[in-house]
Amino acid sequence: MSSLEQLREVLGVPPGAVCGSDFGAVEGSLGVGLPPDVKGMCYLYGDTLISDFIFVLGPKFIAEQSLWVSELVREGHPVIAKAVLPDAGGMLHWGHSVDGDKFFLEHRGGSHWTVSAFRRDWADWYESDETLID
Fold it and tell me: What's the domain of life for this entry (predicted)?
């Protein structure tokens, strides 16, 4: 069983999968190819709120939101000190919480991307070795 199938078992049937949406346009506007697991997760659960807490960005909003956060960082965000796509070498902004946390994927080489987050309540930066689906 793939990780994406396991995730679907945990989260249940997607409330409104965006399977017909095109990630090609998103990748073009961000200037990066995204790994299949990220596109899979965002196809299934993107542009929806999960458990009334985490909003996962999908093809409809991910490029727009990444641009918005990259501008915040360029203007000197006090905690998010790393570039955000579409800036060269930037992280992918893939979601946020209802509490104002911002979730990112950092490219670690090859097709390996790991989760990092700006935690608003603590005003700090968190990095993990976990992939989006993990």
Answer: Bacteria
